[in-house]
Amino acid sequence: MTAESTARLLRITEVADEVGLTTRTVRYYEELGLLKPAARSEGSYRLFDEDDLDRLRFIRGLRDDAGFSLAEIGQLLEDEEARERNRARFRGTTDVRERRSILEDALDRIERQEVSLREKARRIDQMLAEVERRRGHLEGHLRDLETGHDPDHPAATR
Amino acid sequence: MTAESTARLLRITEVADEVGLTTRTVRYYEELGLLKPAARSEGSYRLFDEDDLDRLRFIRGLRDDAGFSLAEIGQLLEDEEARERNRARFRGTTDVRERRSILEDALDRIERQEVSLREKARRIDQMLAEVERRRGHLEGHLRDLETGHDPDHPAATR
DNA sequence: CATAACGTTCACGTTAACGGCAAGGTTCTG
DNA sequence: CAGAACCTTGCCGTTAACGTGAACGTTATG
Description:
Two copies of one chain form a homodimer. The first copy, chain A, is mostly helical. The first copy, chain A, has helices at residues 12-19, 23-32, 50-64, 70-91, 96-146. In chain A, helix 4 packs antiparallel against helix 5 (96-146). Chain A binds a DNA duplex through residues 11-13, 22-25, 27-28, 32, 41-46, 69-71.
């Protein structure tokens, strides 16, 4: 379809450098099933496209920023694919009861994810609030120092 | 004789059950220095008070909800104690330059924590938004089914 | 005060998430 | 077409975060 679509496939060290992982890690993720076999060259070099890069960046983000284990990440990605399959199933039938069942199933999974994420977010927001409270406190003290106002020795009046 | 303020000290299985950890894990956390030696009984049973429970719950929350490693948690708790010591140092001097230096140092550490937490929060919010978008989508479909409205087959008139 | 129930300190085992070779093919480059 | 620079698949090593006894002391209870 798209004429430009052959963007050029990258080899493993290029992708590793690009997304900030090691080649070992990329292979390991493939071994775990987090990554599709991508594509192989004539010899058997792994070849990656832009979608693979996105997926790796996504995985890395979940791991580093959100603190998910690779098992949890695998679950999320699997759910993603189950979603795709469900869409196909959904379009493959016109039976209202079956369609509703498919949708409700999907909704259940989504809600479970939401609860888990919300708990994580709540905890982090709590810590952020605490940290900011302290920061405000410290900044207040610093301002006091700048203006020569000393709360510990308030009798500096004249 | 001892006032009522001595709330009663708990033994390790009681605390473990209470906060949802195993005894091994509690001992391990002490070994890592995440927990003070608490208190020991006549024999050498570990005895814990409410503060210990809070600390354990806090650790557990950071581990499970926020996805921090025990090393990171140790760092956070250490910073906490460094903060305490700094407050003592701060109160121990009246030299404005020294006070400012202490405050600026503390502010630096706080800001580093804040950046790290904010990145984590941002990533999780992103995922939550995505999850909710999907949820809305699914709920829309379900409503369509309930009302007999079928977007794929609009001419289902009877 | 016997004894069950609980605790203590080693110390070795396990799983996740990679690191680091070795032995050998593959691709590129002059 | 030869050598450098990559890549492949094993396979063993490592660190974090505990699990699981073993061998033995401590506390509560009928």
